[in-house]
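ligand=NDP
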Amino acid sequence: MNKIALITGATSGIGEATSRTLSNLKYNLIITGRREDRLAKIKQELESNYGNSVLTLCFDIQLENETSEALANIPSKWRKIDVLINNAGLASGTEKVYEEAWDKWSQMIDTNIKGLLFLSKEIIKWMVPRKTGHIVNISSIAGINVYEGGSIYCASKHAVNAITKGMRIDLLKHNIRVTSISPGMVDTEFSLVRFGGDETQAQNVYQGVTPLSAIDVAESIEFVVTRPPHVNINDILIMPTQQADAYNTYRK
Ligand code: NDP
Ligand code: 8X3
């Protein structure tokens, strides 16, 4: 029987690329995001190219009631989730801690931390009795370094790292694997979202650098989920060759 993976934030970037790599491995997929048109298009593309089954769930992961309702509507045969990819997330703005950006900070905290936690709790409840499962949390170099104008985004990814370590310990006796993947710069819609749709500012982030592609990260996800059952990859830090860390980037 095909395995089932749930990928949050599959409407673009890393999540969308991962939906292709896992479809290629014959996973049936539950894909989520807020943009219903994109979910429908990706479902259609995957099912016709890979022959797997794809269930779409459209909800805002910041909202517990929407998330609960979406999960409650998952048919029982789809609840045997083998792999959960906690990928939905964003950075919003580059305001400093004394500047006015409360709404943006709340959005990052509610999406990157609370959303990930609430959804995970619900899915883990289905994994524990089955004594099997794998949770892959998408963190960031921002979970390791803190840079100017990034305090709340970085805080959210530091929190993801702490939650990941906690999950690993709490889930040890339940045979559920837990992995953190921390990329540096990846060329997705991430910077466009961070800069509120300003394409020039978004493109400047990648100037003179060959960033990672979403596929590079999806291939790391493919690697961790295809290890034999006795192997748990705890952490992967994946960077563009031209970026050593959040502070050191060599731009040509
Ligand atoms: P994208 O902006 O391309 O994708 C983000 C995804 O998250 C979209 O599918 C979006 O779906 C979803 N999402 C965002 N907010 C919500 C929400 N409130 N409810 C439901 N879904 C939501 O960026 P990336 O692919 O780059 O980002 C994926 C993850 O990778 C994020 O966690 C990000 O922090 C992390 N990351 C990115 C890096 C980069 O440089 N790009 C580097 C390191 C980590 P929709 O808009 O349809 O809701
Ligand atoms: C995204 C990478 O360096 O913009 O998580 O924080 S960075």
